[in-house]
């Protein structure tokens, strides 16, 4: 909280260059001695003092990024939160080629993408195009190649196998050999016996990091020996190149990195639109959550999958469940307090897909997301100030426990920090006569334009609403607006307008006055029994039954409450003297008294 969102201009800490230290902890390298801080020195510490050395991991010289990288990513993201500092964000390395995949773990790639997006806050957009742009181009190309290989293998398996004789090898007869015998002379460009042309020895590196075959040649020898000139086959290079790519690429690592980056982008969208109920963000997150939910899971052991990766292989259960939990919590952030039915259906479907092998962390993330959707009974939602974003990031940290007592990588008590981001944002309309909440239609003027909604409703951002206009025929019109400082109004008028808006934001209540001739909302929800729809008799001399039918007064032998559905008022006979007098005045007005 000391440097939250301050960036490099933190008071008193600018000369320490915190981003340089944090980037070293993220990417690794030799240790940099910090001034005034004790560091580990193995030369002067031959006995491996437990105070400075790990007793669980054999740490080599330099920084152990397996321990420091997650903390460095979160710290750097919080220091430069919402600063849009491109110079710092561009220094956070995300795998850009297949070589870097061997040095950056898939889960660390997720954290690095989240840190970069939180720094470049304004660049986050709730769209599938933006989400696809976060995946490095080489990963997208490799995934497309994997799909092509899988389709080619499926097409080849569907074709009937026709036995064919191998072509006879071309040979050149040595002139000094005896008659009737021949010696086969092989070309230097041809592969040795038993080695296919798609071997890495006969391939060239590809820009994507794989290997593309140079191509097979037709004919052996040259014109001097009587052979034909080598000709490149136009069909075989693509096939052999794809085979070389399939054998040289770690497809498990490719797919794990891709889904982790997608999950990290979804988490960034959830933090950016937390508590807003944005329909675009909701649509994107629902689609990705459905993708992770329906993705096939491999039953093989992770060690076996890593040793035998194939282009069309299914991902392991742990990776998919982690990404699914991250997207589920992101969806819960966006739809916090809205009680959205589509989000509830999706999250309930995750529970139905759970089985006995589903980990504790998956259940925890799913039920946390459901609780966020109905946060505070629909009266609370999440704020977007820096402290709230930091609290949500700690509550939704993408490392979930394996059991109830698992606190190794993330303290489970931090999952409750979301309460620091919860705010009472429900605005309800209250009738001044009965002091009861009612449902009314209002028009909200925001930066995105006018929006017609029904109160009670969550209004997330405190300063995002410019005006509230009551749009109902049952109640008298009310307009509360926020005056602009440069709108040409006087200081007193601006202060008065802002005072009414501040009172609405503080009390979260909009007081309304019902018009005469209309019923309360609890009696006539649709407004179909107002005075305009009442029965008006045609008579010259009013009679008592005319009045009873007009006011719809029930006939009662004893005293009690008598309600008029035309005016919405109650009369008390016998006990309430004021109500009895009012009833007599109304009868005299019709000439019946």
Short description:
The chain has 593 residues and is α+β, with helices and mostly antiparallel strands. It contains 17 helices and 18 strands.
Describe the secondary-structure layout.
Layout: H1 18-27, H2 65-79, H3 86-89, H4 106-119, H5 128-133, H6 137-158, E1 203-205, E2 211-213, E3 217-218, E4 231-232, H7 236-248, H8 251-272, H9 279-294, E5 297-298, H10 302-307, E6 315-316, H11 317-334, H12 341-352, H13 360-373, E7 380-382, H14 386-395, E8 422-424, E9 426-431, E10 437-438, E11 440-446, E12 449-455, E13 457-458, E14 465-470, E15 479-481, H15 491-507, E16 509-512, H16 544-551, E17 561-563, E18 570-572, H17 577-589
Parallel strand pairs: 5-6, 9-16
Antiparallel strand pairs: 1-2, 3-4, 7-8, 9-10, 9-13, 11-12, 11-14, 14-15, 17-18
Helix pairs in contact: 1-2, 2-4, 4-8, 6-8, 8-9, 8-11, 9-11, 11-13, 12-13
């Amino acid at each position: 909280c000391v440097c939250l969102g301050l960036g490099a201009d933190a008071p008193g800490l600018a000369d320490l260059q915190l981003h340089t230290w944090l980037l070293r902890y993220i990417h690794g390298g030799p240790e940099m001695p910090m001034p005034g801080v004790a560091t580990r020195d193995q030369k002067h510490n031959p006995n491996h003092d437990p105070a400075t050395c790990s007793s669980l991991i054999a740490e080599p010289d330099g920084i152990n990024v397996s321990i420091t990288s997650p903390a460095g990513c979160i710290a750097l993201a919080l220091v430069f939160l919402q600063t849009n500092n491109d110079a710092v964000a561009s220094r956070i390395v995300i795998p850009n080629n297949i070589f870097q995949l061997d040095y950056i773990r898939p889960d660390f790639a997720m954290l690095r993408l989240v840190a970069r997006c939180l720094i470049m806050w304004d660049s986050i957009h709730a769209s599938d195009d933006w989400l696809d742009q976060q995946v490095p181009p080489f990963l997208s190309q490799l995934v497309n190649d994997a799909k092509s290989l899988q389709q080619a293998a499926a097409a080849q398996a569907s074709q009937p196998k026709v036995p064919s004789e191998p072509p006879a090898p071309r040979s050149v007869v040595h002139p000094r050999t005896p008659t009737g015998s021949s010696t086969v002379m092989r070309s230097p460009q041809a592969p040795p016996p038993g080695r296919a042309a798609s071997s890495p020895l006969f391939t060239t590196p590809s820009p994507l990091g794989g290997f593309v075959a140079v191509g097979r040649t037709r004919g052996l020898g040259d014109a001097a020996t009587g052979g034909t000139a080598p000709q490149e086959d136009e069909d075989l290079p693509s096939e052999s190149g794809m085979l070389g790519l399939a054998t040289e690429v770690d497809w498990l690592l490719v797919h794990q990195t891709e889904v982790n980056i997608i999950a990290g982008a979804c988490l960034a969208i959830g933090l950016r639109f937390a508590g807003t109920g944005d329909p675009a963000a909701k649509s994107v997150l629902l689609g990705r959550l459905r993708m992770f939910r329906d993705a096939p899971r491999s039953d093989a052991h992770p060690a076996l999958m890593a040793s035998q990766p194939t282009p069309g292989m299914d991902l392991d259960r742990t990776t998919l469940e982690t990404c699914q939990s991250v997207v589920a919590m992101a969806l819960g952030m966006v739809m916090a307090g809205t009680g959205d039915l589509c989000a509830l259906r999706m999250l309930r479907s995750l529970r139905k897909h759970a089985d006995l092998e589903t980990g504790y962390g998956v259940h925890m993330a799913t039920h946390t997301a459901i609780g966020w959707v109905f946060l505070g009974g629909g009266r609370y939602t999440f704020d977007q100030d820096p402290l709230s974003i930091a609290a949500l990031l700690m509550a939704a940290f993408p490392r979930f426990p394996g059991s109830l007592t698992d606190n190794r990588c993330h303290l489970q008590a931090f999952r409750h920090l979301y309460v620091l981001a919860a705010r009472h944002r429900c605005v309800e309309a209250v009738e001044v006569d009965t002091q009861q909440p009612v449902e009314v239609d209002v028009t909200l003027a925001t930066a995105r334009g006018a929006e017609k909604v029904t109160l009670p409703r969550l209004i997330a951002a405190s300063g995002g609403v410019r005006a509230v206009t009551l749009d109902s025929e049952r109640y008298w019109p009310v307009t509360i607006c926020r005056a602009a400082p440069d709108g040409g109004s006087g200081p007193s008028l601006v202060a008065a307008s802002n005072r009414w808006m501040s009172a609405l934001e503080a009390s979260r209540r909009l007081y309304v006055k019902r018009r005469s001739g209309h019923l309360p909302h609890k009696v006539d929800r649709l407004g179909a029994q107002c005075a305009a729809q009442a029965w008006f008799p045609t008579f010259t001399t009013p009679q008592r039954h005319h009045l009873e039918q007009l006011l719809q007064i029930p006939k009662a032998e004893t005293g009690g409450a008598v309600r008029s559905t035309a005016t919405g008022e109650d009369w008390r006979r016998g006990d309430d003297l004021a109500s009895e007098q009012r009833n007599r005045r109304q009868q005299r007005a019709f000439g019946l008294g």
